[in-house]
Amino acid sequence: MFYLSYKYTSIKYFIDLVFYNYYLKCFVLIDLKTSKVTHQDVGQMDMYVRMYDELKRTEGDNPTIGIILCSDTDEDIARYSILKGNEQLFASKYKLYLPSEEELRAEIETQKTMYKLQHQK
How far apart are CA 92 and CA 115, in angstroms? Predict the structure, then answer.
């Protein structure tokens, strides 16, 4: 776990996982949320992505990628925050339980249909 504390604001921020992907040649930051994603979560990840790009990225590295995994999503945040159109920040919903094979197949088909509809526009 990466821990960063700002001296003047007394706010503590956490990133759950930081790794360097040698195939993509970039840092990947993952933040796991057990609740609905908020604007603060998105802003925090944006700050970390910018910080890693500025302080850790070396010549030849690709831009840092930030991934927020949350138990519940918010369409307004996806539509009206920095997530929209950003190629470095991503948010995704995860399930709190392991689905059965039938549930997994149905969810994959639903996601495929939604993806096709979104990209036909």
Answer: 14
Contact partners, residue 99, CB within 8 Å, separation at least 6: 107
pTM recorded for the entire structure: 0.65
SS3 76: helix
Could you please report the per-residue DSSP string of 21-68? Answer: ETTTTEEEEEEEEEEE--HHHHHHHHHHHHHHHHHT--TTPPPPEEEE
**pLDDT value of position 49:** 92
Q: Which residue has the tokens 């307004």?
A: 76
Side by side, which strands form the sheet with 89-93?
Answer: 17-21, 26-36, 65-72, 89-93
Q: What angle do CA 84, 32, 4 make, to 5 degrees?
A: 95
End-to-end CA distance of the chain: 40
